[in-house]
Amino acid sequence: MREVDLDVFASELAQGAFAIDVREPDEYRAGHVPGVRTAPLSELGARLPALPADRPVYVICASGNRSAWAAEHLEAVGIRAVSVAGGTSGWAHTGRPIMRGTDARTA
């Protein structure tokens, strides 16, 4: 499993990277990185068919713990996954934008 810092993630996201947030729906609605799809850890298995097989899937959570776990499990089923160190809280602390509510983008 690969892990990237927030600067690399921001650059990849700006270039159209596919990213999922594995936090639960209430956490996602409270504040998420714009453009990141919701795929709660509790539903990750059911979301596998929606994940791309031809490019990396960036995985973010609150701080990086759940995303690391999810990325390891995605790798185990053949999906190239990259965990985002620092998570959404780190993203917000660097002054990057946070979207509240839902943008209806699910994985």
Question: Which terms would index this structure?
Answer:
globular, 107 residues, 5 strands, 5 helices, alpha/beta, 5-stranded parallel β-sheet
Can you put this structure into words, describing what you see?
- With 107 residues, the chain is an alpha/beta fold.
- 36% of the residues lie in helices and 16% in strands.
- The protein contains 5 helices and 5 strands; from the N terminus they run E-H-E-H-E-H-E-H-E-H.
- The protein has a 5-stranded parallel beta sheet with strand order 1-5-4-2-3.
- It is globular, with a radius of gyration of 12 Å.
- The relative contact order is 0.28.
- The model has no long low-confidence stretch (mean pLDDT 94).
What is this entry, summarized?
The chain has 107 residues and is of the alpha/beta class. The chain is built from five helices and five strands.
Largest sheet: 5 strands, parallel
Strand content: 15-25%
Helix content: 25-40%
Could you give the order of strands across the largest sheet? Answer: 1-5-4-2-3
Low-pLDDT segments, ≥5 res: none
Based on CA atoms alone, the radius of gyration comes out at 12 Å
Number of helices: 5
Structural class: alpha/beta
What is the helix/strand order? EHEHEHEHEH
Instruction: Count the E strands.
Output: 5
C-alpha end-to-end distance? 20 Å
